[in-house]
């Protein structure tokens, strides 16, 4: 979970109370499989081995075992989430890995990372999701040296929509990137009907 907004806190607190913080559905993933599809897509941003990664909205740190299974060994990793319950689980599961409970937008990070990744944490509906997306990219670019990778829910007519989530139109996101950023970018939507990945490079 990402941002210091009431909607985000309320959205995840309700699922934590319902399932417990160590349950996959507390993170609002339908299954481990659906979560790992997003991880597979995110890793396509580049060779993550030997690189440093800032995982924004890291939840319970599930990217860590995924990278291990893919034989990807980062030079450094920092997981960041606003929900203390998720961070507690992550620290217990992976005691040798660094996790912090902070708001990405309010945190001054002392060192830049090669990559900033954010898997699903930008999907909670708020007053202006596109403004948040813009602010996120600006800060993520300032905290990285190589690129930024995110996954977003996609507007899709044959899926039942959750009113608490925001569904992005892929073509509008593409135009938004072309208008607001001169950086090279890539969009992938080949791994799920209702999701797509955006990579923004330095």
Indicate the CATH topology.
Rossmann fold
Total tally of structural domains = 1
How many separate helices? 6
Low-confidence stretches: none
Query: CATH architecture, please?
Result: 3-Layer(aba) Sandwich
Report the average pLDDT across residues: 93
Order of SSEs, N→C? HHEHEHEEHEHEE
Residue share in β-strands: 15-25%
**Distance, first to last CA:** 25 Å
CATH class: Alpha Beta
Which strand order do you get reading across the main beta sheet? Answer: 3-2-1-4-5-7-6
Question: How much helical structure, as a percent, in the residues?
Answer: 25-40%
Radius of gyration: 16 Å
The largest sheet is:
7 strands, mixed
- Could you state the CATH homologous superfamily? Vaccinia Virus protein VP39
Q: How many beta-strand runs?
A: 7
List key phrases describing it:
202 residues; alpha/beta; Rossmann fold; seven-stranded mixed beta sheet; 7 strands
Report on this model:
The relative contact order is 0.17. The longest helix is centred in the first third of the chain and has 14 residues, at 6-19. Strands 3-2-1-4-5-7-6 form a seven-stranded mixed sheet, sandwiched between helices. The protein has six helices and seven strands; from the N terminus they run ααβαβαββαβαββ. 33% of the residues lie in helices and 21% in strands. The model has no long low-confidence stretch (mean pLDDT 93). The protein has one domain (6-201): 3-Layer(aba) Sandwich (Rossmann fold). With 202 residues, it is an alpha/beta fold. It is globular, with a radius of gyration of 16 Å.
């Amino acid at each position: 979970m990402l941002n210091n907004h009431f909607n985000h806190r309320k959205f995840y607190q309700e699922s934590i109370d319902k399932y417990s913080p160590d349950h996959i559905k507390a993170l609002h993933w339908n299954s481990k499989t659906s979560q790992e599809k997003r991880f597979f897509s995110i890793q396509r941003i580049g060779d993550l081995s030997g690189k440093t990664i800032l995982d924004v909205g890291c939840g319970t740190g599930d990217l860590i075992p995924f990278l291990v299974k893919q034989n990807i060994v980062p030079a450094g990793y920092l997981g960041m989430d606003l929900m203390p319950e998720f961070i507690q689980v992550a620290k217990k599961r992976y005691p040798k890995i660094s996790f912090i409970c902070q708001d990405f937008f309010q945190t001054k990070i002392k060192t830049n990372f090669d990559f900033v990744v954010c898997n699903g944490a930008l999907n909670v509906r708020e007053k202006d999701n596109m403004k948040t997306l813009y602010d996120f990219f600006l800060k993520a670019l300032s905290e990285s040296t190589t690129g930024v990778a995110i996954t977003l829910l996609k507007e899709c007519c044959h899926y039942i929509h959750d009113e608490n989530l925001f569904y992005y139109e892929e073509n509008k996101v593409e135009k938004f990137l072309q208008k607001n950023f001169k950086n090279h970018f890539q969009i992938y939507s080949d791994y799920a009907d209702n999701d797509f990945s955006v990579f923004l490079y330095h």
